[in-house]
Structure formats: structure tokens, C-alpha cells
Design brief:
Distance between the termini: 44 Å
Strand content: 5-15%
Helix content: 55-70%
Strand order of the largest sheet: 1-2-3
Number of helices: 5
Radius of gyration: 16 Å
Number of strands: 3
Order of helices and strands: EEHHEHHH
Largest sheet: 3 strands, antiparallel
Shape: globular
Length: 149
């Protein structure tokens, strides 16, 4: 089925990107950081539910929708920046596990994965994915600001 220049099809590189971003979260779930502020009760439960819905939509649109005009995946400025955002995200998690839990760390934990997804979607010309990424970014940032800043 086609949606303009977009069609349904599994995108393995998007799934790998999503797994890379989720890996620190999975580790945190099983091995919480010392002095774990992130496990405190959220003040934005309803907002977090909507953010989770859009996070699922990010996964669905990145992994299941391809733009037929996008060239084969290769190193490009956008892909390198997306990878750099992933690396920065992992570094922020390491900093958090070292006991540094301040506003800057929380903002980076919020923004870097969103940037990685957005840069990837732009490179892949997946305009449909940009919508849930944008909404998730806004919701996630608001939640982060209310809960941690």
C-alpha cells in the first residue's frame, strides 16, 4: 500500500536505531542508577501516557513506513549527526549513573534521542514519522521540565 511517496515495509535500520536508544532505558529498568531520581513518581502522568502513545507511533512510522524516493542508507551528514546524538545520549546515561543528576543531564536525556530520531527521519525522507517525533519531543520536554527542572 502506498501513501504518496511512502509505502509500508519493514525498515531494519530504523529498528536498530530504536533499539540503540532503548538500550540504556532497558538497562536502567533492570539496574536502576544509584540515587535514582528518574524512578520518582511523575507529576505529569496523563502527559506521559500521551508521550508513550507518540513514542509507539515513532517506532511504527520509522520502522514500517519507507519513502520510495529515499536513496539507499549510507553515511551522510544527517546519519552521522543522528549517530552522534545516540552517542551523546549514552554518555548522558553514563553521567547519570555516575551520580550527576541535574537539569542539564535531564534535558540532554530528553533531547538527544528525539534529535536522533528526527535526523534519521529527515535523512530517510520519512515525512510521516516527523509528526509523531515532533509531538513526542514537545510532550517529553514539557514532562522533563515539570518533573526535573
Amino acid at each position: 500500500m502506498k501513501l504518496g511517496e511512502h509505502r509500508f515495509g519493514f525498515n531494519i535500520s530504523a529498528a536498530v536505531l530504536f533499539l540503540i536508544i532503548m538500550l540504556p532505558n532497558i538497562i536502567w529498568f533492570f539496574v536502576p542508577a544509584p540515587h535514582d531520581i528518574l524512578s520518582n513518581a511523575s507529576k505529569t502522568e496523563i502527559l506521559d501516557i500521551f508521550a508513550t502513545v507518540f513514542q509507539v507511533l515513532i517506532l511504527a512510522t520509522l520502522c514500517a513506513i519507507k519513502n520510495t524516493t529515499a536513496k539507499k542508507l549510507k553515511l551522510s551528514v544527517l546519519i552521522i549527526l543522528s549517530a552522534a546524538a545516540c552517542l551523546a545520549y549514552c554518555i548522558c546515561w553514563a553521567v547519570y549513573y555516575c551520580g550527576i543528576a541535574n537539569g542539564g543531564v535531564f534535558v540532554c536525556l530528553c533531547i538527544f534521542p528525539c534529535c536522533a530520531f528526527m535526523l534519521y527521519a529527515i535523512d530517510r525522507k520519512n515525512l510521516i514519522a516527523i509528526i509523531p517525533i515532533t509531538v513526542f519531543t514537545v510532550l517529553h520536554f514539557i514532562s522533563t521540565a515539570i518533573n526535573f527542572l
